Amino acid sequence: MADKWQWQSELALAHLKQTDVAQHLGIDKSSMALLVSKMVVGKGLTASELDKTRWNKALSYIEARKEVFMQI
User: How far apart are the C-alpha atoms of 13 and 41, rounded to whole Å?
Assistant: First the structure.
C-alpha cells in the first residue's frame, strides 16, 4: 500500500470502513488505526509478526469483499 489515500480507496472499493475490517480481525478501532499506521505510513518496518499476520488477513478480507461487489 503506497499511502493512506490508497488504503481509503481500497476500503471504498470493497464498501468497507476501517472499523469493519477491525471488527473482522477482532481488534478495536484504535488498534486498527495503529496497525494501518505501521503498515502504510511506516511501510511495515516496525511491525511485529502478529501485525503482519493481521495485515495480511485484512488485505485478504478486503480483496474478497471487492470480488463480491464486482460480481454484482
Answer: 20
